[in-house]
Each structure stands twice: as structure tokens, then as C-alpha cells.
């Protein structure tokens, strides 16, 4: 098949054509079990009938009207987010990068409004990932994503993840925000320590800085809570959300408090497509399913079962040295014998009918549907065992 797209993506050697639940079929009719979830996006699997109905109903009424107007669909989803989180106000956009861009701009604008232009420094974490805009890739602490795009925005300091002492040393009265992923997803599925997030809240308060949590990957039920900050006993000032928020339909959101929101004053920021009726209607329907006690309990139960299965496979084949994560965001760290070969393992898995991810070069990542069934989990574990066996035997 001829590729007409720019060369910044390395596509897998299959072309998905249709899907239902956690099953995907390619153009050759081969079936796959999806434990990747569109990189933690397809929170309710593929083609969920409730989401289809919401999309079709809205599509017959109104697609786009611009942000010169609000719509009932956007207000309904915003209300659900506000009533179930710390937040008082919501800004809608189209992606995680845009949500983080808005969050970082708001943090600087709030500091400018209340303390002056010199309070502009952002503290973020090494190996963080916050998107691919120039600002978000600069806040993200991974030089490989910054190479070739200099000069980068200034005023950003990176500290080691989970290092309280480094955070305390870095923060000052010039700091406007501390930015943290509750679970570092793209770089290895590494959960934050409770002490680290609680220290971040404390030092932000002491220095009149804002605590910004990037929940693009961890939000909307992925960790077994609606948002991951609920695991930590802290309340942020700003949270970014996307991925599972639309369960496959592009939408992003920045959530914040009435204390901070006024700095996003009239005309200070915007998004042409943000909060469009189609995305908001799908997001609202998805919210109702995700923010349900049974769904969240299911996430925790299936996540525990998948982690147990991965540990057993790891021990059986000497493949994984650690399995970690929260809910259905799970990372399996390769053992020393197979270090830095996560990408290879993902390719072998695809050959055995399994869609999974890597998180960096040394961690195999799993982010399946929050509704993953027992049957699909059982079949996926069997495929994982076959994958492990083939991967290990190829070295002998």
C-alpha cells in the first residue's frame, strides 16, 4: 500500500479495518486482541453502541457552531467534570497536547496577573511527556523529542521524578507551576510516590505556585479512579485530560478552580474546534459509563488479574523483572537478559494476534479497554504466553 503521509510515523505491517470491543480485524481478515487501547484512548473498547448512538444523534442535529456560542452538549460534559472533580471550570480543546498547552499558559498567566512577570518558571520532571507542541515538548523532560527544534521556550527546570529533595531545592518564589504526571506513562509506566505528590502540593502552597497534574493518560478511569490524583490525597490547581475523555473521539480538556480560571480572561486563549458538539456528546456518554462504581471496580479487578498473569509469564520465561502500574495502565519491565528490546516484543506480539505497546525501550505497556471481558483477558494472556515463548526461543 502506497503511503502518502509524512515519514514521522513507523506504521505496523497490518492495516486495521474494523473492530468491536477488544477485538480488531485487519484488511486481510486476521483477528487481534487489543490491549493497547489506541494508546489508552479507547476506554470503552471499539464501537461501543452507546457512543455510536450519542454520535449519530448529535450528528443529525449540530456538528460545529464555533466558540462564538456555547452548546448544551459542551455544558453537559463540563458540568459532569466539575461535579465529580476538584474543578470549577473547564476549557475544551482537541488533544492532550492542547490541554497541557492551555494548562501551562494559564499557570504563567495566573502568576503574571497576581505576582508579576518574573514569576514564570515551571518545574517539571525528567522523562516526563506532555505532548508535541513546542511548549509541551519543552516541559517534557525528554531531549530526544526536543532535538532539532531549538530554540526552546525558556524558564523550565527538570528534576528527577519522585525526588522530594530535588523538588524542594528547585522551587522558589520565581516558580509559577510544578507539573507532574501521577503515573509517568510514555517513559515507563512509573507511578508517583505518595510522598512526592504530597510534597509537591506543600511546596507549591509555600511558594504560591500552582500544582499542575497531567492526567491525559491516567484520567477518566484508567487507574481505577476517575482521576489518578484521587489515589494520592492531594487536590491540584489544574488538571489536563484527553485520550479516554472521548473514548476514541478527539477531545481534550483543562480543568481548574475558580481561584485560577479568571486568568484565562476574554480572548486570552481559544480553540476553534474545542468542545464541538460531536466530541462533547460522545464524551458525555462515555463519562456516564466510566464514572460508574461497577466500571471502576472492574478496572481494578482486571488490572490485578493482568498484573498477576504478567508476573507469572515473567517468572516462567525470565522475561520481566518488575510489573507495575495502577488499574489498567500497566508496565512490564524487561529483565536484564532482554533489556531495551520492548519494541521487538511488541512486534512479536502482533504476529501472535495481540496489540500491545512499549513505553520507552525497556517497558512493555498495556492500556486496554476499561471494560475488558474475562474471555478477552484469558485469550490475551494465552497470546502473551505464546509471544513470550517465541520471543525467548528466538534467542536460543
From TrEMBL:
Chief site of localization: cytoplasm
Reactions mediated catalytically: N(2)-acetyl-L-ornithine + 2-oxoglutarate = N-acetyl-L-glutamate 5-semialdehyde + L-glutamate
Pathway info: Amino-acid biosynthesis; L-arginine biosynthesis; N(2)-acetyl-L-ornithine from L-glutamate: step 4/4
Cofactor binding note: Binds 1 pyridoxal phosphate per subunit.
Binding site for N(2)-acetyl-L-ornithine: 132, 271
EC number: 2.6.1.11
Keywords: Amino-acid biosynthesis, Aminotransferase, Arginine biosynthesis, Cytoplasm, Pyridoxal phosphate, Transferase
EC top class, as a word: transferase
Molecular-function GO term, any one: N2-acetyl-L-ornithine:2-oxoglutarate 5-aminotransferase activity
Origin: domain of life: Bacteria
Xref: Pfam families: Aminotran_3 (PF00202)
Reported cofactor(s): pyridoxal 5'-phosphate
SUPFAM superfamilies given in the database record: PLP-dependent transferases
Binding site for pyridoxal 5'-phosphate: 96-97, 129, 214-217, 272
Modified residues (N6-(pyridoxal phosphate)lysine): 243
Annotated localization: Cytoplasm
Miscellaneous notes: May also have succinyldiaminopimelate aminotransferase activity, thus carrying out the corresponding step in lysine biosynthesis.
Subunit structure: Homodimer.
Family, as annotated: Belongs to the class-III pyridoxal-phosphate-dependent aminotransferase family. ArgD subfamily.
Protein name (record): Acetylornithine aminotransferase
Gene name as annotated: argD
